[in-house]
């Protein structure tokens, strides 16, 4: 029975994530801004779920500048991970402090049912990797962060992804050098932040032999490259971190404006997720196995 939480064990999800990384197929992980969005991502047929730090902060009404705490991230990421049978990777920013905090972050996210996390080499306070003015710590400092994280891991299948923000600061070659050092320190996956175009993704792929993750965030420094192109150059994972939130908020904003001017939401019904689709995603009818009084209604046409 997997109504109340995922039917797939944490270990099986981590094994699935690792199998995806070595499958030779591009793994596609959209960001889920909520547990419900994670259910939709699985239903549509994606390979995994991403929990974005930027989205988690925005959802709390905050900018993505390292204000969110380990507890906030663990609680929300855990709720998202539990809502789906897919593996979920969480954005752990810089690890919420010094290396020992990065280690504790691994323990907390393992306990919360995540399949993996990523740690980045930015200084605190961090900022979005696609903004100017960010900075990175020396390689040695990031290696301490990573080694602490790797040492804290109890499930050997829990994936530790290292993100380098160095491309926009120290240049492409420095980013490659850092990626190699991070892989040597035990990172299973490298997040190549803010590369500019397909040529750079291709060059990065040729320069290292560890699994690579591409960030297709909108309105940033990277050209929006298709899954087919990323697959062809040999990338292993693509995330669409903020995309579902941007889509939803775009629709919410225009809908709110229409309600304000028209005085009704009647013209918006076609664009809405129908009540019946929501109930399908929530598996509402199956809760009847516990209590047959729960789903004893029929939905009115057009309701
Ligand atoms: C991937 C990212 O770390 C995130 O938190 O989702 C962000 C995305 C964004 O702000 O567009 C980042 O690239 O820094
Ligand atoms: Mg982030």
If you had to describe this structure to a student in words, what would you say it looks like?
It is globular and about 60 Å long. The model has no long low-confidence stretch (mean pLDDT 96). It has an eight-stranded parallel beta sheet. Helix 8 links the parallel strand 6 and strand 7. Helices cover 42% and strands 11% of the residues. By secondary structure, the protein is an alpha/beta fold. It has eleven helices and eight strands. It has one domain: TIM Barrel, CATH 3.20.20. The structure holds alpha-methylisocitric acid and magnesium ion (MG). The site of alpha-methylisocitric acid (MIC) has 14 residues, from helix 3. One of its GO terms (biological process) is propionate catabolic process, 2-methylcitrate cycle. Belongs to the isocitrate lyase/PEP mutase superfamily. Methylisocitrate lyase family.
Describe the structure in brief:
By secondary structure, this protein is an alpha/beta fold. Helices cover 42% and strands 11% of the residues.
Largest sheet: 8 strands, parallel
CATH architecture: Alpha-Beta Barrel
The small molecules bound here are: alpha-methylisocitric acid, magnesium ion
Strand percentage lies at 5-15%
- Work out the radius of gyration: 20 Å
CATH superfamily (homologous) name: Phosphoenolpyruvate-binding domains
Which bin fits the share of residues in helices? 40-55%
The helix tally amounts to 11
Q: What is the end-to-end distance?
A: 30 Å
Low-confidence stretches: none
Strand order of the largest sheet: 1-8-7-6-5-4-3-2
* Mean pLDDT rating: 96
Q: What is the class in the CATH system?
A: Alpha Beta
The number of domains is 1
Large-scale geometry: globular
**DSSP strand count:** 8
């Amino acid at each position: 029975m997997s109504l109340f939480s995922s039917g797939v064990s944490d270990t099986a999800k981590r094994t699935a994530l690792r199998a995806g990384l070595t499958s030779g197929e591009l793994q596609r992980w959209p960001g889920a801004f909520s547990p419900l969005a994670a259910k939709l991502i699985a239903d549509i047929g994606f390979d995994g779920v991403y929990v974005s730090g930027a989205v988690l902060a925005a959802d709390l009404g905050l900018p993505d500048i390292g204000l969110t705490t380990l507890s906030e991230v663990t609680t929300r990421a855990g709720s998202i991970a539990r809502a789906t049978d897919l593996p979920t990777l969480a954005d752990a920013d810089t690890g919420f402090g010094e290396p020992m905090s990065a280690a504790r972050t691994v323990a907390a996210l393992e306990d919360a049912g995540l399949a993996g996390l990523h740690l980045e080499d930015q200084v605190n306070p961090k900022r979005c990797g696609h903004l100017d003015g960010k900075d990175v710590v020396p390689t040695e400092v990031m290696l301490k962060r990573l080694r602490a994280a790797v040492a804290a891991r109890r499930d050997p299948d829990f994936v530790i992804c290292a993100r380098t923000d160095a491309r926009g600061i120290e240049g492409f070659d420095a980013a490659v050098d850092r990626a190699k050092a991070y892989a040597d320190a035990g990172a299973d996956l490298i997040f190549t932040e803010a590369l500019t175009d397909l040529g750079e993704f291709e060059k990065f792929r040729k320069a290292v032999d560890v699994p690579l993750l591409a960030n297709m965030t909108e309105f940033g420094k990277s050209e929006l490259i298709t899954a087919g192109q990323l697959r062809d150059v040999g990338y292993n994972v693509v995330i669409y971190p903020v995309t579902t939130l941007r889509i939803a908020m775009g629709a919410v904003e225009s809908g709110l404006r229409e309600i304000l001017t028209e005085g009704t939401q009647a013209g918006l019904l076609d664009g809405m997720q129908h009540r019946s689709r929501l109930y399908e995603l929530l598996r509402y009818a199956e809760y009847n196995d516990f209590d047959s009084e729960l789903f004893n209604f029929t939905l009115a046409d057009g309701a």
